[in-house]
Here is the input.
Amino acid sequence: MSEKPNKPLQINPIKLSQPMGALLCFLGIKNTMPLMHGAQGCASFSKVFFTRHFSDPIAVQTTAVNDITAVLDGGDYSVSEAVKNITKKVKPDLVGLFTTGMTETKGDDIKGATFLLKDVQKMVYVHTPDFEGGLESGYAKSIEAIIEQLVTPTTTIDNKKALIIPNVNLTPIEVEKIKEQVDLFGYETLALPDISQSLDGHLGLKQGAMSSGGISIEEIEELGSSQIVITIGNSVEKAGNLLNSKNENMIHLHFDTISGLLKADKFYKSLMDIKKISKPNPSVVRWRKRLQDALLDTHFALGGAKVVIAAEPDQILSIATTIKEAGTNITAVVSPTKSVSLETLNDINVIIGDFDDVENELKNADILISNFHGERICNNLKKALMVRGFPNYELVGNNLKNDTLYEGSCYMLFEIANIINHYKYGQH
Here is the structure.
């Protein structure tokens, strides 16, 4: 694994910023207004980016810091004015305040600004400078802030309540499917955040000025009574530990990924052990058999294929886990940030880099698995492309793409096998 980039600057970066991760997190909380503390262009870029990706309107407001207020204001005034303007038009249950590189460099006291407004508006604040970390860490930091500032400590346990904490790479339908699978074990399952109810592409009665669905503030405040909390992805493991500290009687189950046969087995086995049952729901058994068959069917296409993956660390691990079971040769993975997740890929060339590195590695491979921006490279090199991650501007239905557990792993194996077959035997 390359501990450092092999050049002094990013060329055509893969990396997305922490504030964008924070925005996605707050969009999974019901009746919430994400408030980006920074310049107007920062919020505009993120709004357009996710609107194009999800093909849905995205709610976000900004404190609109400019060159004058950046010098004269310590953060209090611009935050209070933004909250005042928001509450004139709508009445959010929560305002999620998160920072950008400029306001972090200034050193604005957002905790103090939030405290001054506590009688006016319920708020959560989180520090997300975009000069460090990335999409995963911004999302995870926001979950940690929500848990720390909103969840009520307790010692009681509700044996029917379970919580999922998904990483930022899980799509709305994946969050929904995971909740449904946990429900099969007799739980009423919540997710924090829950984008399966807000960014899933449902047709609402009208365009909302705030997040259109998700977990409610009341449900968040009572999450300490959950019997189990399930964290999926290395980036959110700390959030699960933080919630566990709110109630020491809670059970914390952590999985770096639940994609592929063996990792999904581990997921279901953990739930079976808690419930003391020897066999899961028949639908689970049936999908496991389908995945076994899919591994056999796709091995002929994937067994000799050379693949490069460029994505966020948790997503890299998830994709790599699934396709390696079918015998795929992963020649390199390129991640924008370092992560413990990547340390488990001992037999794979791991690069912390950018699309310039992707282009170099793809010359000796067949297919790239990456976001929409990998298309130009694949066209130039006449290589195949499977689009995953943020953004995906050309394909519709990103919110309903499922790669997880037995069912989703089947879909992904079939998709990549079909793409590779078309690349080998069809028109490049």
Residues 282-302 form the longest helix (21 residues). The radius of gyration is 22 Å.
